[in-house]
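debug: dumping io for the single-chain case to check the tokenizer round-trip. Nothing else runs in this session.
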Amino acid sequence: MEQAAMAFVGPQPLEAVRSRAHRAAVVVLTLEVSDPEVLAELRRHPEEDDRERFALAALRVGVLALRMASGQVDAVSLREAGQAFLAEVRQLLAARATETTERVASALTQYLDPQSGVLPQRLQALVREDGELERLLRAHLGADDSMLARSLAAHLGEGSPIFKLLSPTDANGLRAQLTNALEAALADQRKHILREFSLDRKDSALSRLFAEFSLDDEKSALSRLSKMIETTSEQIGKNFTLDDEGSALARMKRELLGTIEQLAKTNVEFQSQVREALTRLDTRKKDEALTTRHGVTFEERLGALLADEAQRLGDLHESIGDTTGAIKQCKKGDHVIELSADSAAAHARIVWEAKEKLGYSLRAALEEIDEARRNRQAQVGVFVFSRKAVPEGLESLQRHGNDVVVVWDAEDSSSDIALRAAYSLARALAVRERRVDRESVTAIAEIDRSARAIERQIGYLAEIRKWADTVKGHGEKIAERSARMADELRRDVERLDAQVAGMRTAAQPAG
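debug: decoded output
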């Protein structure tokens, strides 16, 4: 490796620098120093040689610092320093290990050597015959004159207190004392029990028990129970008699009679209202059947209901039955609902096709609504059958893929809930068409469950119509079932709307 020396040239002559050129290659630098801090440090060394050494050292420090800052490390220097350090550590550890081994060997020899060790000599003195341990045991546990024998004789011998206490023949012994104590305790308990079971003593337990079951004593438990039974019997007799107008049974009779009369009156009024409504409906149907616009009226009424529902939900409604769509010369599709910009399926389209024409099968309806979806470029289609022209056996609400089939009676406002349910189901299907992911699977399952529930509830409408034919005998049943059905349908539609709203919230970007 080529080594280069860099010299600081100040006021010293150039020949002085060149005189050292035989030692290494020299790079001659002529520097003009203007930095105040560097000048101050150089002026602290007035001697030229001293100043030169200081400048060279400062230059080397600066170069090394710049090299370290740029990430370059003198690997050779580090390797040599590390090897020297390891050699010193190895030598020191070897010396310490030799010294420690010698000390441990010397100490073990001093204590454990079989011939001269302190521990073997001490153990031999303890365990040898007639040694210290044998003499100690003989003194404490030996023959009759040992310390243990004398102690046992003093405490457990024939003349000891404990021997006298355990003697069965000694009048002051333990047996005699226990016998006397038990006899005294048993005698005392016998007397106490006899006193409690004696009728001669008024304060005995037996006397107090007989007193509680005596009718002669007004304070006895039996007397109090007898009075309580008499009072309760009188109260029951008063409340369960019809002779007393203020009794509970008489009041309940009056309330039941009043309720029955009110129900009968309400039933009569309801039957009258149903008859009038059926008469008006029958007259209206006959009048419209004579006109040629009953189909158009059905579509117009559907459009009016869809417009109201779209306004409530913030969607856009458009009647397009007289205009052609994307298919040439095709006018399939009577109404289009476009979901609002705030929906999870913003600007998605739902096409509606209404038919009040006999002879339409479910297959024909599905083919027509499929063509209407393509013609109006919609994601979901809804085919509305008039109840006058519904195929036999068709459910009131069905879903087939992205199409919904619903049965609606324009003259019966109670069937509007089925149409609103179809609207909510179609909006949910439009959202699913736009966003089918893991988060929406649960929502779609809830939508399907709600749709099935709506189908069941709408099926009850057929039962109501049957009951209406015999309204005189089923007035109360109609009122009860109608109220329950309306509540359940309202909850199912609300669940559908909540699912669509939740999916709309999840579709909005965070932040």
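debug: round-trip ok. Strands lie at 4-9, 25-30, 316-319, 335-338, 349-355, 380-386, 397-400, 403-408.
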